[in-house]
Amino acid sequence: MQTRGKFLDDMSQLMTNAMGVAQGARTEAETAFRGMVDRWLADRDLVTREEFDAVRAMALKAREENAALAARLAALEAKPDTPKA
Length: 85
What we know:
With 85 residues, the protein is mostly helical. The chain folds into two domains: 1-46; 47-78. The protein has helices at residues 2-43, 49-78.
């Protein structure tokens, strides 16, 4: 009876170790896949969401400034010329 218990303990330990190895392999595969996808995206000159949002905010600000300058220019052009003394 003693050997059978030892056998089951050994098999249990073997399965536990095998699951640990499988978990490590899974983690390593995920890391490698993520790295491969990151390199693929970088090679295609794609931007991240943060970069896109930053450039979009800059473009909106530039549009607002252009609209303000256009209104100011229109107001200056609408003024009649005053003779200089």
